[in-house]
Amino acid sequence: MKTMSAKDAKNSFGLLLDQARAEPVQVEKHGRPVVVVMSVEAFEKLSSARAKGRQVSERQRPEEG
User: Fold this and answer.
1) Pairwise CA distance, residues 14 & 1, whole Å
2) Domains defined for the chain, CATH in brackets
3) pTM score, two decimals?
């Protein structure tokens, strides 16, 4: 994963977008990671996988009552 400072992300926003389309980019402020910027496609894939994981775990729960 690439890393970029918040200052560089602000000053080179177009570059940040280009890089995030290829792979997630971690943005740091004062040397600490604060956010990850990723493409819409990567976000949708992650969201879909997470939703599928939730469905599987809900089916595995024992019945209550």
Assistant:
1) 18
2) 2-60 (3.40.1620.10)
3) 0.76
